[in-house]
Design the sequence.
């Protein structure tokens, strides 16, 4: 066990993985370089054949990127981590690096639109078949298993429905099938949920979201056991090139210092706003894991530290009411990003899940009246007032009730 392994999460987020140059800088150094020089041809040969553990090319590894990867591994409780240029690069790498034509994957039906594209359209072009299941139904996961099943994939909470899946239950089914379970943990963050502790084999993040948390840069990360990362993931990343920029990795390293503070505050505010939303007559339904009326509330209590920063809202007036509400907001901004210091709202049916067929959206519960709210760091009272005013505007413009005949 190293000294870093003994540290608690908040301390790891500030100090984990730090490598200082001979200048002894306080803040982590930014090594904005493509390549590295060697003192001799013999040294270069030793680097390339693995006898010398130094760096050779930033597409393979970089000192700043390595600091981000080690800090993320310490936070997650993973043996190893590799960063990528975006969250979708991380998802795709985690799935594709260890499958081949003829293999089969099982995935939850409720996924981010691009994740759904990868598993249901892109991978089948490579000869990898996919079965989509209703994530909360463990029997569907069991029934979908085939002899050629190599991987399971899920989000929990799911984007944008905030549906939860029993990670430990799915992990048990995956192990029995000899398959890997890959969990996209972007909504819960490593602060509120630990999929590896629940039995998952691999965890992926869009670091663009809460990990950056300020809307500045793209990034992704894949975390798993060291052997799989070295033998399966690393060769794929080295040869296909979805490398993260050292500058972006440096931004993410600095953002990790405040991740726990930000997510904890955002989740506390989200819990209070969910109550405000649920009390208004213009709101048909609120989906928030921290509320007892969430269908998987008991599961949320078991596998999450809190209800998280994300809320799904369904307005009674459909798309017209949803648009009216979003347009009436003042502090909360319209954006398809999430996990930001600024509170953001989007209409999934016309943005993040616009490419999903209407029939499939309805099956997922992505109605025309649904909005996805990412709660930020503003004063909770200001956000509550902003929401209340926008909801009142929706109610004021609602068509009058039809008189009884």
Sequence:
């Amino acid at each position: 066990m190293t000294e870093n392994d003994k540290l608690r999460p908040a301390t790891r987020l500030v100090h984990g993985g730090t490598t200082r140059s001979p200048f002894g800088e306080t803040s982590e150094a930014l090594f904005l370089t493509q390549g590295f020089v060697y003192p001799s041809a013999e040294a270069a040969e030793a680097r390339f054949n693995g006898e010398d553990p130094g760096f050779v090319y930033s597409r393979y590894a970089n000192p700043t990127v390595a600091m981000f990867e080690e800090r993320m591994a310490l936070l997650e409780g993973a043996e190893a981590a590799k960063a990528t240029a975006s969250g979708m690069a991380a998802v795709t790498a985690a799935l594709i690096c260890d499958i081949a034509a003829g293999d089969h994957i099982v995935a939850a039906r409720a996924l981010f639109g691009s994740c759904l594209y990868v598993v249901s359209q892109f991978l089948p072009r490579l000869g990898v078949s996919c079965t989509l299941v209703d994530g909360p139904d463990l029997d569907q996961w069991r029934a979908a298993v085939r002899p050629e099943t190599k991987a399971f994939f899920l989000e929990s909470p799911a984007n944008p429905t905030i549906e939860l899946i029993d990670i430990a239950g799915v992990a048990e089914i995956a192990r029995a099938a000899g398959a890997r379970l890959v969990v996209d943990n972007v909504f819960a963050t490593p602060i509120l949920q630990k999929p590896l502790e629940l039995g998952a084999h691999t965890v992926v993040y869009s670091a663009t979201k809460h990990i950056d948390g300020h809307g500045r840069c793209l990034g992704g990360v894949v975390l798993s056991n060291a052997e799989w990362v070295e033998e399966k993931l690393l060769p794929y990343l080295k040869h296909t090139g979805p490398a993260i920029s050292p500058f972006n990795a440096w931004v993410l390293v600095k953002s990790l210092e405040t991740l726990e503070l930000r997510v904890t505050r955002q989740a506390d505010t989200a819990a209070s706003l969910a109550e405000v939303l649920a009390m208004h007559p213009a709101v048909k339904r609120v989906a928030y894991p921290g509320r007892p009326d969430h269908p998987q509330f008991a599961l949320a209590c078991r596998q999450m530290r809190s209800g998280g920063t994300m809320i799904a809202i369904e307005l009674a007036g459909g798309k017209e009411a949803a648009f009216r509400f979003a347009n009436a907001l003042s502090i909360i901004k319209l954006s398809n990003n999430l996990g930001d210091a600024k509170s953001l709202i989007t209409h999934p049916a016309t943005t993040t899940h616009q490419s999903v067929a209407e029939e499939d959206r309805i099956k997922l519960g992505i109605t025309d009246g649904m909005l996805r709210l990412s709660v930020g760091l503003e004063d909770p009272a200001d956000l509550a007032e902003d929401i209340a005013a926008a909801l009142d505007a929706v109610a004021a413009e609602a068509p009058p009730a039809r008189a009884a005949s």
In short: The chain has two domains: 3-30+61-256, 259-397. Residues 259-397 form a domain with the Aspartate Aminotransferase, domain 1 fold (CATH 3.90.1150.10).
